[in-house]
Design brief:
CATH topology of the largest domain: Rieske Iron-sulfur Protein
CATH superfamily of the largest domain: Rieske [2Fe-2S] iron-sulphur domain
Mean pLDDT: 89
Shape: elongated
Radius of gyration: 29 Å
Number of helices: 4
Largest sheet: 3 strands, antiparallel
Distance between the termini: 79 Å
CATH class of the largest domain: Mainly Beta
Oligomer: single chain
Amino acid sequence: MSNTGSGHDETKRDFLMVATAAVGAVGAGLTVWPFINSLNPSADVLALASIEVDLSTIEEGQSITVTWRGKPVFIRRQTAAEIADAEGVDVATLPDPQAYGDRVTKPGWLVMVGICTHLGCVPGGQKVTDNKGDFGGWYCPCHGSHYDTAGRIRKGPAPKNLEVPEYNFLSDNLIKIG
């Protein structure tokens, strides 16, 4: 018996093993990719990742509410009296100590997520006719949380101040939230 062709058979077998492994790896990758890709945020979520808001129509003492990532965001152009009230508070007396200057990028413009930090209610205080609580800011009637003119918790069960989202001024009258 001769061993002619056995080297050729081994080479052919090696090629078939490598080709089969490569096709299997590509097939596994193509099978797994849709599952991995499904973890990426959807287009509607990405569209809400940031918003631009024109502030030119907001007068001093007026508030507006915009929606960002499905949450209400309160934007208030504060009066000099509201700023003075917010700056005049002894930060050490607050349940969640935070100075007014740490909550605003530009004095006179307050931007915060309008969701009570107690149980996720939306506090009143945006409209002129709303109950603004004991401190002239926002009041959550569900459980009695009172926020001051800087959105800081002053009284009630809420453990934290109203959240300040990431935002920056693109110009004097335009901000980008997110």
